[in-house]
Structure formats: C-alpha cells, structure tokens
Design a protein that fits this description.
The protein is of the alpha/beta class. Helix content is about 45%, strand content about 15%. The protein has a domain at about 1-25 and about 80-110 and about 165-205: Rossmann fold, CATH 3.40.50.300. The structure holds zinc ion. Zinc ion binds near residues 125 and 130. Zinc ion binds near residues 145 and 150.
Length: about 210
Amino acid sequence: MKLVLLGPPGAGKGTQAETLIDRLKIPAISTGMLLRNAISNKTELGLKAKSFIDSGDLVPDELVVGLLRERLLEEDCQNGFILDGFPRTQAQAEMLDKICAIDKVLSIELADEKILQRLSGRRVCNGCGASYHTIFKPSKVDMICDSCGGGLTIRDDDKPETIKRRLSVYHEQTEPIKAYYKAQGKLCEAYGQEDVKDTTKEVLKALGLE
Ligand SMILES: [Zn+2]
C-alpha cells in the first residue's frame, strides 16, 4: 500500500505509523529524515539542500521531490510505503502525483483543544531526558524528575503559542489537501481517541485492514 499520512501535529501520526510499519511490513518515509541523510552523505541533492538551509532559505519542493523519487525506487519500497509529513501543501500533493500513484491517504483527526492539552502538558527532564505529562504521566513532585531529581522543562515545540502557530499553518496549508484527495477517492479518516490502542483500531478500520 502506498499511503500518505495526514493530520495535525500531535494527533499521533508517528505512533500510528509505527503500528502500520509492523502490520504492513512497509517502511515509513519522512522527508525531514531524507534531507538529513542526504546532507550528511553529501549527495548531489544533499549538497544543494544544504546551500539553501545555510542561507536561511526553505529547501524548494522540486529538490525534496527529487530526493523522494530516489528513495521510492529503493528495494524496500516496492511493496509500498508510508509517507509521513509530506505533502504539506496542494502544490506538493500535485508534484507527488507526478512521481508515483498513491493508493490511500489517511487523515488522523483530533480537535485542536485536545492537541493543545496533549502537547502543552509534556515535560522533559534536563538531566536524564525522561518524559512526563502533567495529566497523563505526572511527576511525583511538580517540575522535578522522579528518577534523577533533575528539573523538568517544556520544550519550545510544546509551548502553547508554538502549538497554536503550527495548528494554524496546518489548517491553512495542509488541511485543504484533504479535499484534493477526496476528489480522487483516496481519502480515509480516523478519529484520534484517548487511548492509543483505540486510535489504532480506528486507523485499521478506516484503511479496511480490520
Ligand atoms: Zn531525570
């Protein structure tokens, strides 16, 4: 199955991707990882990408799609793959259509308030890196790590204003792609649940795997 995963940040795409990798025996591909690998391996496209990043520019879509095209030709992608984090815009979706025929697009839905609750409650230990959550996995003493006694911190990505900004970018730029894929008859939707296992059930049902 050639699958695209959509959904707002914090909806649990990464976790569900891991389940699907196991279940479908296909790799998950993130363009962020492709870029990092190409840059560290100093490939032709990697060096080009680096020159954009070094000058503070966004890496152009054509270059990212070029990397993706190379990756999708590799052996492990021949039975399918899961694309996570790409496409993020209509223009990218159209470019993707030119290099391969996607089978299904799964959108994992979760209300903004739930996402804010999930992400803004995260705490990470400065000392040992252990993770906590104010609601779902609280530390015994507020802002202190249970295992090493280090101080807990809120990552920049988990600050409410950052989350709100990422959500509004998602709603403005990425969410409209759903209509594009719906018109192609490829869109499936699953609703994020309190329990990860229940979300997985929704995901499998939406994809017709259960
Ligand atoms: Zn710690």
